[in-house]
Amino acid sequence: MDKSVLIEYVDMIEEIKEIRRRIRKLEDEITNITVVSDTVKGTRKDGTIGPIKITGYPFPLENRKKALLSRYRRKLEEREEELLELTIKAEEYIESIPKSELRIMFRFYFLDGKTYVKTAMEMNVLFPDRHIKYTEDNVKKKIQRFFKNVPQCPEEKC
What we know:
Blueprint: H1 4-31, E1 36-43, E2 49-56, H2 59-95, H3 100-111, H4 116-126, H5 136-149
Antiparallel strand pairs: 1-2
Helix pairs in contact: 1-2, 2-3, 3-4, 4-5
């Protein structure tokens, strides 16, 4: 297992957010479908020729949007199941890190989705007596050094 699990985990979270945004947008569009009307020139029932107003509800449009909404919901369920599997793999990877400090940083940064700044702030709260305070730069460097120094898993063993 290598860092690609963590990267895929973060990407999957963003993909799920995007699918949810699309679902909300479609739901709004469906609720805002209104009656449409148009005026055409033709003959009325009484035989006079002139403008005729036609009014109706766009059922085909609503049905297409509902079908698309259904597909998005199925896709969301699939992605959420994949995310659960990735979460387990990501947590296992983080647990395999020998240093406790790095494990905590990785949980904040990758699993919780915090920025380097917020990760540093959380680390400072957890370790208030630390001589050198955590900063955005040193959190970033520690994570980068970990990936640079740790040999990655060969493909055939993963």
